[in-house]
Design goal:
This protein is α/β, with parallel strands linked by helices and 266 residues long. The chain has 2 domains: 202 residues, 2-enoyl-CoA Hydratase, Chain A, domain 1 (Alpha-Beta Complex), CATH 3.90.226; 48 residues, Lyase 2-enoyl-coa Hydratase, Chain  A, domain 2. It is built from 12 helices and 9 strands. Strand 2, helix 1 and strand 3 form a beta-alpha-beta unit. Helix 5 packs across helix 6 and helix 10 runs antiparallel to helix 11. The longest helix has 16 residues. It starts with 5 loop residues before the first strand and ends in an 8-residue tail after the last helix. 39% of the residues are buried.
């Protein structure tokens, strides 16, 4: 198998990204891993043929979070005095949530196994989460005496609400897939052998829509996390003005009146 930290594969209009560090249970560590997220997301943004992304993990884990052995030995991000560690985080793992803020297409997490610590936060960076019944989730930073340094306290409440986020972050307890479904952390739970089919079925439903409109819609959803209603309406008006001028809008209307499936080209 290739040594690339993240594998990239195209399936129609859907890009499959697979974390490829099964020997560390896909831990998020090292310059290669951080740079791979940035490089692949930039590549996806430039390719209008890509209308959705599925993110999963190689092996039995989705993502085990930070490398605890490096943490113990004060290596990599974890070395130095407090100011140096803060700088290491900015130059390291915090590049991943910043890259997610810039990716323009919908991202589905296909959580195939444990998503622990930063792995749980990685799932929360995605727009949609589908879990295998074998998946487990934990905001487990307190269990190793640290805080969520990758933005988890910003990400998790937006996925599950403040109360559930507080329970997960304050206890560090592990929850199973059904519990994750009950609290809204994931949208559905399927059998392990059905996970990728379910993720791609959803991704293809998304990808059937106009690619530029999908990107504008994602941008509005991201903006809506922190802007006022007036700001949201102003941006929506700007995007709507452009959307009404696109060939895909004209194709959608023609297909509607002709009672056929539209063909969108971006």
């Amino acid at each position: 198998m290739t040594s690339e930290p993240i594998l990239f594969e195209m399936r129609g209009h859907v890009a499959l990204l697979t974390l490829n560090r099964p020997h560390t249970r896909n831990a998020l560590s090292g310059e290669e891993m951080f740079a791979a997220f940035e490089r692949l997301f930039e590549q996806i943004n430039l390719d209008m043929q890509i209308r959705a992304v599925v993110l999963t993990g190689a092996g039995t884990a989705f993502c085990s979070g930070g490398n605890v052995a490096e943490m113990r030995d004060k290596l990599g991000m974890f070395g130095g005095d407090p100011a140096q560690v803060a700088a290491n985080y900015r130059a390291g793992i915090q590049r991943i949530p910043r890259a997610f803020q810039k990716i323009q297409v919908p991202v589905i997490a296909a959580v195939n196994g444990p998503a622990i610590g930063a792995g749980n936060d990685l799932a929360c960076m995605c727009d949609i989460r589908i879990a295998s019944s074998a998946a487990k989730f934990a905001e487990s930073f307190v269990k190793v005496g640290i805080i969520p340094g990758d933005g988890g306290c910003w990400l998790l409440p937006r996925a599950v609400g403040m109360s559930n986020a507080a329970i997960m972050a304050f206890t560090g307890d592990t929850i199973h897939a059904q519990q994750a479904l009950d609290m809204g952390l994931v949208s559905s739970v399927v059998a392990p052998e059905e996970l990728m089919d379910a993720a791609f079925a959803l991704a293809n439903r998304i990808a059937a829509n106009p690619p530029q409109v999908l990107r504008w819609t994602k941008q509005l959803l991201q903006q809506g996390r922190q802007c006022s209603l007036d700001e949201a309406l102003d941006t929506a008006g700007q995007f709507q003005g452009m959307a009404h001028q696109t060939a895909d809008h004209a194709e959608a209307l023609s297909a509607f009146f002709e009672k056929r499936t539209p063909v969108f080209k971006g």
